[in-house]
């Protein structure tokens, strides 16, 4: 499999998931402004949507969208899958992170965002983080007591909250983030993206 990624972007979640699962993968960096890959390809010919992530499965299929990629990867390895009972909870959580948290960061990445827009986005994200904190009070990881691909995604969101948006996090989420930072797969992925 080949992951098209940009350092520190949401594609880091898929990168971590592959590393945690021990799946064989290669990486190709994408310049999101130029829409060029590091080997000189026009990225829009690979993913016409123009954004990362895109995962080339090796049979000619290009899979896009974090919800689909993180679900696909969980299907490839028990190491990042939920138990059968929690399969739909895993999808629910990935969808929540994608649509309610990931998209909530948009004003922090738009150069023309006003301070009011950032404040409203920060307030909205704080409500999402408060909900996630309640979930972590009941279990070790965000879906269950075992690590899943949803944790890979939430890790990236918490990294953005602290490093890009400078948002305060509930203590339980800070502790969870610090715990995840120690995982070899996360250290490996950060290092491979030049972020350590
Ligand atoms: N719906 C997509 C959104 C992906 C996305 O927001 N990618 C960002 C990086 S985190 C990106 O590539 N932005 C550059 C652009 O849109 O041109 C998904 O969940 O995979």
Automatic annotation (TrEMBL):
Keywords: Plasmid, Transferase
Classification via Pfam families: GST_C, GST_N_2
Annotated InterPro entries: Glutathione-S-Trfase_C-like, Glutathione-S-Trfase_C_sf, Glutathione_S-Trfase, Glutathione_S-Trfase_N, GST_C, Thioredoxin-like_sf
Keyword Transport found: no
Domain GST N-terminal: 1-81
Residue span, GST C-terminal domain: 83-196
UniProt-recorded Gene Ontology molecular function terms: transferase activity
NCBIfam families attached to this UniProt entry: PRK10542.1
Protein name: Glutathione transferase GstA
């Amino acid at each position: 499999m080949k992951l098209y990624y940009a350092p520190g972007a949401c594609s880091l979640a898929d990168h971590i998931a592959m590393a945690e699962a021990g799946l064989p993968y290669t990486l190709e960096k994408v310049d999101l402004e130029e829409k060029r890959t590091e080997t000189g390809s026009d990225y829009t010919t690979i993913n016409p949507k123009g954004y990362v992530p895109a995962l080339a499965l090796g049979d000619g299929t290009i899979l896009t969208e974090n919800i689909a990629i993180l679900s696909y990867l969980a299907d490839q390895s028990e190491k990042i899958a939920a138990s059968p009972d929690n399969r739909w909870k895993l999808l629910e959580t990935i969808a929540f992170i994608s649509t309610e948290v990931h998209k909530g960061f948009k004003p922090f990445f738009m150069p023309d965002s006003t301070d009011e827009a950032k404040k409203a986005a920060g307030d909205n994200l704080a409500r999402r983080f408060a909900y996630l904190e309640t979930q972590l009070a009941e279990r070790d990881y965000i879906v269950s007591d075992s690590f899943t691909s949803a944790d890979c995604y939430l890790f990236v969101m918490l990294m953005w909250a602290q490093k890009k948006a400078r948002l305060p996090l509930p203590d339980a989420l800070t502790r969870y983030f610090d715990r995840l930072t120690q995982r070899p797969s996360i250290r490996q992925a950060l290092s491979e993206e030049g972020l350590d």
